[in-house]
Amino acid sequence: MLVAAVAAVAGAGTARAGDGRIEVNQACAVSTGCTPSDTPGFPVALPTGSYVLTGNLVVADPDATAIFVTEPHVWIDLAGFTIQGPNTCPNPGPLCASVGFGHGITSNPVPYTTVKNGIVRGFGSGGIVLREHARVENVLASENGGGVRVNDGSLVRRVRAVRNLGTGISGLLRLTTEGKAVVLVDNLVDRNQDTGIVAGEGSVVAGNLSDGNGGAGIDAFVGTQAIHDNRVRKNGGNGIRASAGAIVEGNTVTENAALGLFLNGTAAYGFNVIRTDPALGGSDTVNAGPQNLGNNLCDGATTCP
Amino acid sequence: MSLSAARAACLLTSLLLAAGDALAGAGVIEINQARALAGGVTEEDTPGYPVTIGFPGSYRLTGPLHVADPNLSAIEITGNDVTLDLNGFVISGPIACQGSGSAVSCNGSGSGAGVFAFSREGIAIENGTVTGFGSGGIVLPTVESCRLARINAVANRGAGIHLGGSCEVDGVIVNGNRGAGIFVSTSDAGLESPIDDVVVRESVLSRNLVEGVFTTSASGRDRFSLVRSTVWANGLAGLDLRTEGDVLDSAILGNGGGGIRLGANSADPDSGLVRGNAVQGNAFGFLFDPNHVGYTHNNFGVNAGASSGGVPIGPNACGGDTVCP
Questions:
Q1: Measured distance CA(B15)–CA(A299) in Å, rounded
Q2: A39: left (phi > 0), else alpha (psi -120 to 50), else beta?
């Protein structure tokens, strides 16, 4: 009798768990399709709507994408689950290889996709690759071809991008003329084989930790950005690169393999702590040319180059 | 079954039933298109739009809402202390707006809003999209203590978001509206407190026909703060703040009017702090109240026209020079 009562209660709970959102899980992905327009097998195709994962998704084919967004205004709550592809980047271990052309989540050229609360791991082409006005929050993107890539007017907050083959988080989808006005804040970008964070014109890059990436810690090589309060350390290239008109303020930039700050002549910097480590190849704290607004500490001196 | 085992089973069943009630959303009132059309979402709600929320509580969309009449709102909040979770769904109206910045155009007009409240307090709205409404996406002209989080307010004929009391706005995307991205009216009508503070953080305000943010003139009691946000490619000014205000750690680029106007339009002295911003490619960089706005550690870059006003309280970069006008 107790078992029957529990089953009845659990059944009622399960029926309510969708709260109107469409459930996505391995069973519907493989067997039936998860939406009326979705056919069995990967990718799961999602038109406009609100979706919630109710289990992990596992994709074995390295060339298959797990979720493909077909229309604007799609919200995906990963609900703590993992979208797992076949790619691996062992740590410690050899450099990982990009295996296949699959993405964890990607889209048609449509705007307004939100992805939150879960893990996307092991996709050769990229973890999460979205278009304009995307929102990615509270996600771990690991061991993908690249971690998270978005385009104009997007928000990326509280994302951990770790051990991806390419860039950890990029606000430039493909071209340097894209990726405008992206807000990248409070992310942790760690041990990616290329650059930690890439940002385009009009972007805000603030409160991030970029540590141990193969390329630059933060590379804002096109347009004008506000770059604030980041911790950038032990990266294989410059700590922070910024272009014309940027403001670079309040950052701690230590032990990177090239310049601490590599700034365009019309960029300005202040309130930064910059320390090089010659043993790592760090050439200097700051290049000559940018406008020093003061209050910087460069290798222990209050006078920066 | 022993007595103790029976008691344990009974207790477990009770706990599970209680959990089932919680999962069932006991206390959280569901809103969807069918319930909207049928009426009775709350006691005072009549069939059709708007859905009227007249009592404090927690409300959640369980499906998208679409309003066909351009003069009707989707949801009207007439009670205090209401939390509305859009749950990832879209609230859409009948008006289609296209284009970006100075080229935004819409195919109609109307007085409807996606979510509307007047003279209320304690309103929270989160997790969804509002688009296609004539009056604006979210219209809370005199609401105290509101919070908006993870909202997309896009392609409305009016403002994306219209506020008028103290409100926290976090992580919103406001794009392609024919009105301002965020419009703050500073009327105190119906409000208990005459002090209105709006804080917008970590948001994108882009490609709206007129200003990214516009606040109407006030008597020195109202304040608007923008933090860690980007204001980009709006048709007129990026920020036109005719109140007190702070602009911190943000990027204001490519707006058809000025980058930041702060306090310069008000008859009263308006104080403010402008720090740590990149301001580039606007019609001009800034126009500040001459004596009460302090600015420091900004890069005003290259803007088309001359900047004026304000008091430099520290170094700034202005078009390759560290001396600003």
A1: 61
A2: beta
Q: Can you tell me the distance from the alpha carbon of B79 to that of B121, in angstroms, rounded to the nearest whole number?
A: 8
The overall pTM is greater than 0.80: yes
- CB-nearest to A155 from B173, B302, B320 is B173
Domains and CATH numbers, chain A: 75-298 (2.160.20.10)
Enumerate residues 6+ apart whose C-beta is below 8 A from A272.
A248, A249, A250, A251, A252, A253, A261, A296, A297
| CA terminus-to-terminus distance, chain B | 88
- Identify from A6, A14, A73 which residue to disrupt to test chain B contact, counting B C-beta atoms within 10 A and taking the largest count: A73
- Retrieve residue B149's tokens: 């989080």
Under 8 Å between Cβ of B249 and B200: no
At residue B319 the predicted structure's pLDDT band, cuts being 50, 70 and 90, is confident
User: Given an 8 Å threshold on Cβ–Cβ distance, is A112 in contact with B129?
Assistant: yes
**Cβ contacts from A onto B, under 8 A:** 208
Instruction: Find chain B residues with C-beta within 8 A of A139's C-beta.
Output: none
pLDDT digits (tens, 9 = 90+) for B251-304: 999 999 999 999 876 667 788 999 999 999 999 999 998 889 999 999 999 888
Radius of gyration of chain A from its Cα atoms, rounded to whole angstroms: 21
Chain A residues close to B89, C-beta within 8 Å: 20, 49-50, 75
Going by pLDDT thresholds of 50, 70 and 90, the confidence category of residue A278 is: confident
Tokens representing B156 are: 């409305």
State the smallest CA–CA distance between residue A281 and chain B in angstroms.
Answer: 30
The ipTM of this complex is: 0.92
Query: What is the CB neighbour count within 10 angstroms for residue A173?
Result: 20
CB contact under 8 A, A204 and B276: no
